[in-house]
Recover the amino acids of this structure.
């Protein structure tokens, strides 16, 4: 049974880029409606990210109207009925009502139509499928037969858990959950890039801890990551972020869920094909994080100097999460995590000239001596007074000269 609800308090439907696109596509025998996540978010009164539009107009007609109105049109998926209209720098995906007549994983043959009910059953929600009741209940479920929908595209397994993490409450829908377990072998057919995109979005969702635990219980995380998933550490990382007032960070949370040593970081980076920056951050977090478990001030300052603020904080937070959770010595961990706000590492004050004057020749040896002196300066806890610096320079130069005479 179809149900409707009026979004009377949605100004974006009355004016602005979305209203302009709708006005363009409505009329002369055609109809257009906002569909999908924008409707859901509007009903939940949370910010809209993308606004997708369904229309009875065929793709060629959409293109014709856009060009006549001077609107940029990009044929992003025209074979499947989708074109993107860009209005005032805002992209809108416009899709002609359709029905998949045959499916081949991600590929499908489609037939265009004018039936809003059939289109809703193909994944575009208008509420012919009980979506309003699901929103009220904070329930995420598949439209139609869950196993069939998953067989059409196995990425829907990950989307089921991502949507539950973002909008659901309590345990995942039982029928959908069991269908995901039955179809989990199909995850191996997905590209790493698509899995990466879904998982990074899932990890930063409000209900990520519950969703990750459900996925681990279903055997899904082992298939995705190829190793152990540390759901307790993951939950502790989320609690630590919140305790520090930090926004969710996907890579930091991924490290908590999957990384105990650097070998884990490299495996996960390869399986998900992380970007070079993401892989570097994950590897850094996994590198000897346990040294921070001693909560030693001097070691923390040295690490902050070596790594920089963000990598230091990320590694410190992994050590905190793996130490047993937010309640285990929280005040001390918080103190270490906020060290960058209270202490700025000084620049290494000794220069090449300080060692040339002590008999060290220019060349590779001079660079080595500077490195040794910097290590000694860190071990001495960053002294800046002239006598201490002179002593470090004297001792380092003498040690180098002695060692190279042996």
């Amino acid at each position: 049974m179809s149900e409707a609800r009026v979004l009377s308090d949605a100004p974006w439907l009355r004016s602005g880029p979305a209203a302009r696109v709708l006005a363009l596509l409505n009329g002369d025998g055609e109809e257009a409606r906002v569909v999908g996540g924008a409707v859901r978010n509007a009903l939940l009164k949370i910010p809209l990210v993308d606004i997708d539009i369904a229309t009875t107009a065929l793709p060629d007609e959409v293109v014709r109207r856009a060009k006549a109105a001077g609107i940029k049109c990009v044929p992003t998926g025209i074979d499947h009925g989708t074109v993107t209209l860009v209005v005032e720098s805002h992209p809108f995906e416009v899709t002609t009502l359709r029905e998949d007549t045959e499916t081949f994983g991600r590929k499908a043959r489609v037939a265009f139509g004018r039936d809003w009910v059939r289109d809703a059953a193909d994944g575009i929600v208008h509420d012919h499928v009980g979506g309003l009741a699901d929103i009220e209940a904070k329930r995420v479920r598949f439209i139609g037969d869950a196993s069939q929908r998953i067989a059409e595209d196995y990425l829907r397994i990950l989307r089921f858990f991502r949507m539950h993490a973002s909008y659901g409450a309590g345990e995942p829908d039982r029928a959908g959950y069991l269908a995901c377990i039955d179809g989990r072998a199909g995850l191996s057919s997905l590209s790493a890039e698509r899995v990466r995109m879904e998982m990074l979005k899932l990890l930063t969702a409000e209900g990520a801890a519950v969703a990750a635990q459900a996925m681990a219980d279903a055997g899904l995380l082992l298939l995705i990551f190829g190793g152990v998933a540390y759901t307790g550490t993951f939950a502790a990382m989320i609690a630590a972020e919140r305790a520090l007032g930090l926004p969710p960070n996907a890579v930091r949370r991924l490290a908590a869920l999957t990384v105990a040593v650097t070998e884990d970081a490299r495996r996960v980076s390869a399986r998900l094909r992380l970007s070079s920056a993401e892989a570097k951050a994950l590897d850094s977090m996994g590198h000897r994080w346990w040294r921070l478990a001693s909560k030693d001030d001097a070691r923390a300052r040295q690490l902050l100097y070596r790594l920089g603020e963000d990598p230091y904080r990320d590694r410190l937070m992994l050590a905190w999460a793996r130490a047993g959770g937010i309640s285990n010595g929280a005040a001390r961990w918080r103190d270490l995590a906020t060290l960058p706000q209270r202490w700025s590492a000084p620049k290494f004050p000794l220069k090449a000239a300080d060692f040339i004057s002590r008999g060290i020749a220019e060349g590779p040896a001079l660079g080595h001596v500077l490195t040794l002196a910097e290590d000694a300066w860190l071990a001495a806890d960053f002294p800046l007074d002239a006598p201490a610096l002179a002593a470090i320079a004297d001792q380092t130069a003498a040690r180098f000269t002695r060692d190279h005479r042996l």
Observations:
- The first helix runs from residue 17 to 25.
- Confidence is low (pLDDT under 50) at residues 118-126.
- Strands lie at 32-35, 52-55, 72-77, 82-87, 90-96, 98-104, 107-112.
- The CA atoms of residues 309 and 340 lie 6 Å apart.
